[in-house]
Structure formats: structure tokens, C-alpha cells
Amino acid sequence: MKPDKDETESTIWRCAAKRTSTRDIGVVFSIMGLFGLQLDPSHYTTRSEALLSLLQRSMANGNRANWLATSLSSSSIIPHFSTSGRTPLSSITSLDDNSREPSIQELVWYLSGAPIGTLDDAGALKIVVSFSQVEINQVVKSRNNGLCFGFDATLEVHGASRSAGIFLSGQTGTHAAKLGTIVLYSTTAVARFLYLEDTLVMLLDRVAGKWCKKGMAAVPSELTNGWEEQEVIIVGKN
Question: What is the pTM of this model?
């Protein structure tokens, strides 16, 4: 059976996010060959430079932005790697906790059907996605969804009289962009995590004329029905 490309690439990014190194630029060079790409180490002095170049080349080859699912609570859209020398296990403690590294339990699912687009030299992502104005209320710390998202909330689609319970990570936003489908890895070890909904959206705010990432949410797929497709340029705190 041919491996699912979304699953393979998402797994690479997730595993890279779990890896620690005292020289974080080395993490980028260690995974570039898995995407069939080569970077000249002499051209880069920082992890940010090398990672941005890797992402740009990957998207230029038509690969999907599966890496968007590696930074759930962070306001960054670019994946971050740890230099602590310890495997990240921490959980979210508040809506303002944007420094949390991905947890081990976030490995139980991957993002399928992520958007294809471009990434400029400033790290701004241009994609065509289903998009809608939303309102998020009743945010409470979750008691039953492990370390994956951290909060329960209610999302209402503006002007559509549709609302549903969601799982939230990071902060709330005024708009949402559909990123793809959440798919659970088919192993018995993840059976207890079947609470996940099946669509991942990025929560956004309009700041100084730019769409800025605020957080992520797992929502029922029917909640995104009727959202209009449009091109958006998203920036993050990278």
C-alpha cells in the first residue's frame, strides 16, 4: 500500500517538533532529505533562516502546508523546535500561554488536505481557504481532551445561525480559516483520544491591515459548510 503523503509529511514535522537539540538549526538539516530537498548549510546561520528556506522550497514543489498543525497554541505559523534538551510534556495553563511546546499526545492525529500556497521572505503565508467571520464564547479549561487543545468553547458562524462546541488552543479570533481534516492515526494506542472533531481551523484577527494568527480550533465539519473560499495572507509572531 502506498503511504499517505499527508500522513507522512505531517509525521515528519510532528516528530521534528518533538526532537530537541542544543543547536536547533541541525533539526532543519536533519529532515530536509526526507522531503527530497537539499540546503547548503554554509548559507544559513540561524534556524529561522534555514527553516523558512525549507518551507518555501517545499511549498514551491507543490507540497501542502502540513506543518501548520505543529504550532497549535503558539501565535507563530512557523514550526518551533526545542533547544531545552528535554522532551516537551507540558500542558496549556491559560489562554495567554503561547510559549508552550507541542505535547507528546499531539502525535495522535495528523492534518490531511492542508492548503497549498506560498511563503514569502518575511514568513507571510498566502493560501486560498474556506473563510468566515466567527464568534467564540464560553471558553473554559478542558477536563476531557488531554493535552491536545486545552480548552472547550462554543463557536458561532457569523450570520449563519450555526454554532457548536469546539476544542480550542491558543487565543480566540474574529475569523477562522479552514486548514484541513483531522485524521487519527489508526492504532489502538490512540483509542482514548477519539474526542477530536474532524476539521482544523486557524483563528485570526485583523491587525494593522493584516490577518494575524491567534490560535487553532478543532470543529465539527458541518460548521464550515457554506464558508466562502478566498485568498488570505496570514502572518504570525515568528
Answer: 0.84
